[in-house]
Amino acid sequence: MKYLLKNVFCFLIALISGGSCAQVPEKRPYIKDPVFDKKISRTISFTIPTIGVDELKAVDEPVFILDAREKEEFEISHIPNARYIGYKNINEDILADIPKTSRVVLYCSIGYRSEKIGEKMKKKGYSNVYNLYGSIFEWINQGNTLVDAQGQVTSRIHTYNQNWSQWITNEEAEKVW
């Protein structure tokens, strides 16, 4: 009965909002901290397929990595080879040389903003778009390298604000907001 009520409620919300009410997949990419995984799964809608940090690192074909945070966050640090696309003020010029069938992985702090940009890209005809599950926070939590605006390795990470900084568990990371 509980399952039926949840589905009816979800259907009504989707009908009223014109959107969808995706369920949290049981099988999700690995997240080091189970509490953080719970936070992510309650924050994003799973409207864009997810990819894990290890999966992204193992991709052996060309991939375009796009950062969907604000410019200040990107300049503090970003994933190596990522391009800045932004969130509030989307830099659509960045899409000019990306074929619509190329693999694109979007990220932000934990995955909400990147999911929204992924939805916009899907509407523009991009067919191979993924949301990095746990985004840059999980990237650094798993000990991966970040670079600054000059391309230099850095331990600094913009955590959006003090409250969101709790999700950075890598003790070597320097939290900035």
List the helices and strands and how they pair.
Blueprint: H1 2-17, H2 34-43, E1 50-51, H3 53-58, E2 63-67, H4 71-76, E3 83-84, E4 103-107, H5 112-123, E5 129-132, H6 135-141, E6 146-147, E7 153-154, E8 156-158, E9 174-176
Parallel strand pairs: 1-5, 2-3, 2-4, 4-5, 8-9
Antiparallel strand pairs: 6-7
Q: Would you give an account of this structure?
A:
This protein has 177 residues and is of the alpha/beta class. It has a single domain, classed as Rhodanese-like domain (Oxidized Rhodanese, domain 1, 3-Layer(aba) Sandwich), CATH 3.40.250. It has six helices and nine strands. The strands form three sheets. Strands 1-5-4-2-3 form a five-stranded parallel sheet. β6 (146-147) and β7 form a beta hairpin. The relative contact order is 0.17. Mean pLDDT is 91; it is low at 2-20.
Regarding CATH, which class? Alpha Beta
Quote the average pLDDT. Answer: 91
Main beta-sheet annotation: 5 strands, parallel
CATH superfamily: Rhodanese-like domain
| Protein structure class | alpha/beta
Distance between the termini: 45 Å
> What order do the SSEs take from the amino end to the carboxyl end, as H and E?
HHEHEHEEHEHEEEE
For the biggest β-sheet, the strand order reads 1-5-4-2-3
Query: What is the tally of beta strands?
Result: 9
User: What name is given to the CATH topology?
Assistant: Oxidized Rhodanese, domain 1
- Please state the overall shape, judged from the principal axes of the Cα atoms: globular
Number of helices: 6
Count the domains: 1
Gyration radius, rounded: 16 Å
Measured as a percent range, the helix fraction is: 25-40%
Low-pLDDT residue intervals, each spanning 5 or more residues: 2-20
CATH architecture: 3-Layer(aba) Sandwich
Approximate strand percentage: 15-25%
Task: Write down the oligomeric state.
Answer: single chain
